[in-house]
Amino acid sequence: MSTREKTSEELLLKEEVLAQNEIVLHNDDVNTFDHVIETLIYACEHTSEQAEQCAILVHYKGKCTVKTGLYDDLEPRCTMLLDAGLSAEII
């Protein structure tokens, strides 16, 4: 096995181990745009522009990925969204 092949295999293995998850926010008819935006800024550390864009996408598309990362980082953020009355899940 050549060095190049071995390096490629190791890289693929590392990519598989570092699988990214996503927090998906779902639309509802209860929460205001302002509440959604403020919660995304707080829970996901979005800028006001990012949060506004996500809120608009959720409203018109029904859902939007609002944060991507490792599960351990996303779980408490998703809990904050849920505690704020938003509908979210980690996929």
Automatic annotation (TrEMBL):
GO biological process: proteolysis
Organism in which the protein naturally occurs: Thalassobellus suaedae
Keywords from the named record: Hydrolase, Protease
Location of the Adaptor protein ClpS core domain: 22-83
Single Gene Ontology MF annotation: peptidase activity
Protein name (Swiss-Prot/TrEMBL): ATP-dependent Clp protease adaptor ClpS
